[in-house]
Amino acid sequence: MDIERTPDERFDGLSGWPYEPRYATVGDGLRMHYVDEGPPDGPVVVLAHGEPTWGYLYRKMIPGLVASGRRVLVPDLIGFGRSDKPADRAAYTYESHVAWTGAWLDRLGLTDITLFGQDWGGFVFLVHVGLTPDRFAGVVAANTGLAAPEVVAAFTAEEFAPAASAFLRWLEQSESPGLTSSWAVGSPDSALNQTAHVLTDEEAAAYDAPFPSERHFVGARQFPQLVPLDATEPPASMLNRAWAGLADFEKPFLTAFAQHEDITRAFEQAFQARVPGAQGRNHLTIPGAGHFLQEQQPDLLVDAILSLR
Questions:
Q1: Taking the model in full, what pTM does it have?
Q2: How far apart are CA 215 and CA 195, in angstroms?
Q3: Taking the CA atoms of the chain, what radius of gyration do you get in angstroms?
Q4: What is the SS3 assignment for 305?
Q5: What are 23-73's pLDDT values in tens digits?
Q6: N or C: which terminal CB in the chain sees fewer CB atoms within 10 Å?
Q7: Helix-helix angle 235-246:94-108, to 10 degrees
């Protein structure tokens, strides 16, 4: 497989990111990067990012979780961060991301996991919750979803319209020449950034560090194309099975959707209504935050994770 590997020096001295890199081999010899901080025997928390970001998105949450005695693991999805980046867009499929992350969970032997998934971090890792529920102790679903055909078909026009509008804008923006991770996170013109969150120059440079060329960025460009908008196979049957598993998931399941989130909002009520573990919980609306709520309300999100156990 033709891959790009971002040079290590691109990650030297990044603002707020002092963490030692660790790697696991997944798939056909791909190197998947992750952070592993806190006591090795502490309760496991996995923080899963979406696009077009990487583990850096969680820099404001890791310290509080570690201080509370959690073992915090932050993987970079294949194509992002310090993980390997296949140069062919066709290598990135919904199924391949599920397979790569599943291999990572297996390599590390992780169990009793509290998952925090945002954006594609949830879209990918929630499949594992549905298919291998015994591996997980609880879930915080934050600005994310799981787009099984039967679930999407149940959305009302009123629920779906804001998501469709925001997603179509992002689908167009994701193909724009010169698109960067920092622009998607920090620009008020980004379809993913419904609030006026502004990055410092140092933060912007850190978000862009993994992507020194267009060949490094193809995974980020491909993700919007992977959203299953109909019953197309093979992802449809996998997603239906995952939702069937979530329909029996009785462990704690908390939603934390931002006040100014459109693109995944329709899934908030779907999770609350369909997942038994979500019943009777104090689900959160995160004030003053948008799609990248980890940047704006990290302490509230840490508290949400800690509230599960």
A1: 0.97
A2: 30
A3: 18
A4: helix
A5: 999 998 999 999 999 999 999 999 999 999 999 999 999 999 999 999 999
A6: N
A7: 50
